[in-house]
Amino acid sequence: MSATPEAVELARLAAAAGLAKKATDPVAFDVSERLAITDVFLILTASNERQVGAVIDGVEEALLAIGRKPVRREGSRENRWVLLDYLDIVVHVQHHEERVLYALEKLWKDCPAIDLGDLDVMDERR
After folding, report:
1. What is the pLDDT of residue 118?
2. Which of the listed CATH numbers 3.40.50.2000, 3.30.70.80, 3.30.460.10, 3.30.1120.10 matches domain 5-107?
3. Confidence of residue 119 (pLDDT cuts 50, 70, 90)
4. What is the mean pLDDT of residues 53-66?
5. Which runs of consecutive H residues, i.e. helices, occur in 1-126?
6. How far is 25 from 44, CA to CA, in rounded Å?
């Protein structure tokens, strides 16, 4: 079993929204074979705590525009690593230092990477 097409499209939309808020290094993994709770992990990097918050806000706004709300949001108090759980995708926005320290790419390297395609930066007025 692999990630659903809807989950992949949500990951692409979330990645584009994050990039519009100056996130960097978007990476997505199909974790559906390893985890029963979600299909896709999307990881984005931000350079400081304020930017982590802006990226999270951008992702939430973009997905809310298509009727999707996270069922859980964790880590927003410190804004070093914030997780948005949309059930079929989980968005991780990490401060650069946390991204290096926790190295989620190494942890999930056995899972197939998802091609996020040519991400068009979303119009920030959306």
Report:
1. 83
2. 3.30.460.10
3. confident
4. 98
5. 5-20, 49-64, 96-102, 104-107
6. 6
